[in-house]
Design goal:
Chains A, B: It is found in: Cytoplasm. Chain A has 491 residues and is α+β, with helices and mostly antiparallel strands. Helix content of chain A is 35%, strand content 27%. Chains A and B meet through strand 2, helix 2, strand 3, strand 4 and helix 3 of A and strand 2, helix 2, strand 3, strand 4 and helix 3 of B.
């Protein structure tokens, strides 16, 4: 198709890197590990944000904003939390630059050293729980259901656009509750909301589960997650929701007066999803011709390309197209009529395929004569000629059908890539030759988990929420086990 | 009214600080100079964002996202730009923490020093123009019309909630054009959009003008601004739009091929408005009872307070109120029915006055018997009894009338606080006793501007766009002058 895009079968990783840049989603910046999210990529992210934000608000959450900087002493208050983030954080030590006295340029002013270093937030539990101490006195102040849209920084050494960047955008929910039960219900609710968002809007099937202790968020009692499967058979964690117990309440001394008058520590959750979802979206649906976007998240849902010679013909086509554009917009469908005279139709076809626009209409002289449009759908690349009278209904059908079809395709792929195994040899064979999730009995020990990771690079992605109780034996140690867990190599 | 709010006449500054906290807009955090924007304050900011974002998109701008960090060498590339920001920037020098070997706690790892220090963006011209070099090759790539919603950091030593904080939220537009004329038109357009937003949505009258050289943005050729007047007679800059000439294109070597095939530097603008607008909103309309919010930006536009004894009466009132709530919401009016049984009506009345809810409905047994509501408007504190059949129409009227009325009130205040003076004595007398804008002839020199600033603390807020050409003489030097400029003490 002339897009010079590496094929997935040749080099999946290279295909991804090229596609993200060529489809104008994002690119690397001059700052190590930090990306620039380009307008087309950001428009998709805005649609994700709008939908998630709506779902959060419908479940009673409000947005707020907390400081970018976290004093080093705050981060240090919860022991496992700081252990998890200390190794990869950006530290602000000074607050001024000045001209070097030897005229060599601009230098950091050594006289402007901060008394206490500030960490650029890798996540905001500590600064938020320091705030909640002031906000929570009584059971009347609970539950506190807050979300923040923000940028965070984790100094990753090996970065990839969207999947792993030093700075990324995300939302982080932080809630406070009077009871353990209510906090657990909240953490589960948010996992379910992420799953609903992933499946219904991203058209990306996910498995809901809980993390093993070693994969838990630093400071959490339990981490719930949703795990998706990419086309190359690697898993991707697409959202996490943590039950934090009273860990942060204790670290920041946040107590409340119960109805009965006693003082108790507050129960907490936190939950987040990030621009990583952009990477998941790309890798779930796209093909060797470029992006394939679900209609619900596509910035442009329908593009109309006129095929014409000369201004007169373009004017005639424009007149025909104008009421269609208007009608589609009135139905909330975003349409672009690409009448640029600087590019030929073939170039435009390629461009919109690359950018994953779900439906493309083309209209030339023959269509003008016959009262038709050529309608092409991006997911299957099928084309057909449709009567002008039927084209709106066709487009409405395609908006739903493409959304449904790409979800089903991803689901079929996942179904054929969950393999139950009962021996370690079989486990290694499946991982090596087929990929995907491998469902196996595990004895529940960190030791076995690490041995498998060291030997195969596969980690336990989750213990699925709907895992049945079974009688089995660990594939490595042979010890008794009661549940199958899902292993996979992962992003 | 029992709100324990300092009166404006007693101490305006204290009134403001108290009100921002008591009305749940924002509070200081444990991080020096950084605020926490609380849910109610953030809900107002979200309304501002949504409206501005709509206006930007309607004028062809797209959102994107650029890195938080700026390498020191980038910031240094435009000489006047770095001079303007070097003195107040947060500098990241390290990327890791570790446990101190003596067990004294967590310390910055001296082995994890960055090769080049990173500045937390105080504004993004440099990182963006470094990116634009890759995006712009030809006249076909222009204009490039981009906006970013982001957090920025300027290490201010004296901070005040919303008005001046070390970290703040803002949007920054960065556009690139083929011609000087087009760039100037863009900068003017964005000033006009800010003015329209301020007047029609914030109900805050503003004066459009250009800044003198000394007040210009660091790196700009011309700075356009909108200036508002607060109730205490001090001015507040509420948005700026800069024509940057080719300064950043030259610093970052961004050239484009013209239609004719020559290589030329690109012309630029940038423009921004920030959470400072929240401070302006509070100080423009609010009174000794609390916030007064324009209906267009109020998170809750109508609150309904039931006055009842016992559950049975509350149920009856709830039944009466339910269809009204539904009808108002269907008209896009945000309504809260406050049926909390933990607080008395008087407490609720106080709370919603403090929070500036534009319209309050109360309904008790007498209203139930008579088929009425008590309707109170926040701006004038007037109350009246309205027939249930007329209440929707009344509320719709009030949404418009309150918006109009508070704008008119602010406009009247400003009109009586623009004083033309012709001598320096008169100038000082007006500044001292009346405040507001002082309109005076100025000889155009930096020297005179600084003398006036040193002696009176008044700065030239702007040279109004609509200033007439006149013949006059400078109020300090007596030298010939052709335009009156506006002086004021300012936030």
């Amino acid at each position: 198709m002339g897009k010079n895009l590496t094929k997935r079968a040749e080099d999946y990783s290279k295909w991804y890197n090229e596609l993200v840049v060529k489809a104008d989603l994002a690119e690397n910046s001059g700052v190590r590990g930090c990306m620039v999210i380009k307008p087309y990529g950001f428009a998709i992210w805005e649609k994700m944000q709008a939908q998630l934000d709506k779902m959060f608000k419908e479940t009673g959450h409000e947005n707020a904003y907390f400081p970018l900087f976290i004093p080093k002493s705050y981060l240090s208050k919860e022991a496992s939390h700081v252990a998890g983030f200390a190794k990869e954080c950006a530290v602000v030590t000074h607050y001024r630059l000045k001209n070097a006295e030897d005229g060599s340029g601009i230098i950091v002013d050594p006289d402007a050293k901060l008394e206490e270093e500030l960490i650029v937030r890798p996540t905001s539990e500590t600064i938020i729980w320091d705030t909640y101490r002031r906000w929570i006195q009584s059971y009347r102040d609970l539950p506190l259901l807050i979300n923040q849209w923000a940028n965070v920084v984790r100094w990753e050494m090996r970065t990839r656009l969207f999947l792993r960047t030093a700075e990324f955008l995300w939302q982080e929910g932080h809630t406070a509750h009077a009871t353990e039960k209510e906090a657990i219900a909240e953490a589960e609710q948010m996992m379910n909301i992420y799953a609903e968002f992933a499946e219904e809007h991203m058209a990306m099937p996910v498995i809901k589960g809980i993390k093993t202790e070693s994969e838990r968020f630093a400071g959490a009692v339990e981490t719930y997650c949703i795990e998706a499967l990419m086309q190359d058979g690697k898993a991707l964690q697409a959202g996490t929701s943590h039950f934090l117990g009273q860990n942060f309440a204790k670290a920041f001394d946040v107590k409340f007066a119960t109805k009965e008058g006693s003082q108790e520590y507050v129960w907490a959750t936190s939950w987040g999803a990030s621009t990583r979802l952009m990477g998941a979206l790309v890798m779930t649906h796209s093909d060797d011709n470029g992006l394939v976007l679900p209609p619900k998240l596509a910035p442009i849902q329908v593009v109309i390309v006129p095929i014409y010679k000369g201004e007169e013909q373009l004017d005639a086509i424009s007149d025909r197209v104008a009421p269609l554009v208007k009608e589609l917009r009135s139905k909330g469908i975003s349409v672009k009529f690409d009448n640029r005279d600087t590019h030929k139709p073939g170039f435009k076809f390629n461009e919109y395929e690359l950018k994953g626009v779900p439906v493309r209409l083309a209209i030339g002289q023959r269509d003008m004569d016959n009262g038709t449009y050529e309608v092409a759908r991006r997911d299957t690349l099928e084309k057909e000629t449709v009567n002008a009278d039927d084209v709106v209904a066709k487009i409405e059908f395609l908006m739903e059908d493409i959304q449904r079809n790409i979800f089903q395709k991803a689901l079929d792929h996942r179904k054929t890539h969950i393999t139950e195994v009962n021996s370690y040899d079989e486990f290694k064979e499946v991982l090596e030759n087929k990929g995907g999730f491998v469902s196996a009995f595990w004895d529940g020990t960190l030791e076995t988990e690490e041995k498998i990771k060291d030997e195969t690079k596969a980690t336990i992605r989750c213990i699925p929420i709907d895992a049945k109780d079974e009688v089995g034996s660990c594939l490595v140690t042979g010890k008794p086990a009661t549940k199958r867990v899902l292993f996979a190599k992962a992003y």
